[in-house]
Structures are given as C-alpha cells and as structure tokens.
Amino acid sequence: MEVPTWTFGVPSVSVIGDGYCFPYPMELIVKKKIKKMSNAQFEVFDLSGNLLLQVDGGVWSFNMKRIVRDPAGFPILTLRGKALTLWHKWKAHEGENKDENNILFSVRQSHPLQIKKDLHVFLANFKQKDPDFHVTGSYTSLSFKVYKGHRLLAEVKGPRLSAEVKHTFTLESFYKGKEKYRVKVYPEVDYAFIVALLVIIDENDTP
Q: What is the pTM for the complete model shown?
C-alpha cells in the first residue's frame, strides 16, 4: 500500500467542514446506482473499501433533492435543485435544514443554453456578483474541473491537481444502472464538497 505524502502550508478549502480536509492526497471510489428514472444512489469509498459518504434522493414534483450522509446514515448536507429550469439552480444546507438564511453554498449554470456544463458556486445564496468557485464538466466528455478564482482545485488530467476524477461509463453500465467514478482529492481540499459538486454536475448532465 502506497504511503500518502503529507503536505503542509497549503491553504485549506473547507466548505462543509474541516473534518473533510486532510494534509495528504485521498483516492476515492464513487459508485452510482440508478434504481429508477427518478432515483439514484451514490456511495463513496476509500481504496481500502471503507465507506466514507452516502448520497441518496431523487426527483419529486419537478424538484430535485440529494442528501449526503456519513457512514452511519446521518445527514450532513442536503442538496435541493429545480428540475426543468433553464438555470439548473441548486442550494445546499447543512444537515436536512432548509432555512433560506442558512445556506452553505448555491450553484447555478453560468448560461441557461450552454452545451458544456459551466457552473458557478456561491458561498451562501446567489447575492454576490462573482462566484466563489467555478465548476466545468460534461457528461459526454467525462470531465470535471473546479476553480476557486484563478486557482485550480480539480481537474481530470495533470500532475499538479487538487482533485482528479476518472469516470467509467459504458453502454453496459448504463443499461445495468451502475456507474463508477475514481476521484483523487489533493491535500487540504474538502472531499465532501468535491463529492457534492460531482453529484450536482452528474445530475445536470445525466440524459
């Protein structure tokens, strides 16, 4: 087993909690299982097979809801989105809270008619002009990138990344309703936040 390289002095990117930031790279396996057209479940493991996070939820009455849970099933984050809207807006609350004054972060498309997904992430509720994070990705190109200002936090390829995502997608996996992501999260990046953004962009991109 490869011993992780510890990194010190890197600015921490913590959104959901400091407990999800580590001073060494993390390799995550994200498994997605589609139970039916309106429902999908995600499970996140480390390379040793330990369950780290669970994500469940689906689409009801044109609203989308995903709940991120810890290994014991306790809700740590709820993602609420609007299906059938041009802007694909999402809001994230701690636990199962839905108070509009207590939003951890909000997500929306940068343009409603774009083909390649380009998402803006705001800490709180769409009030400021400039986003705190910028996410790009595409279901067809299997890409996933996260920026904080001009700082690159996540990307598919390259040796100097904060998170790397590889997506295994085949027609067989689609028909069986199973997909698998391999995520590499670099030091001091909130891996629960990265997983939440991955779920959102997957939700927006799923045909």
A: 0.84
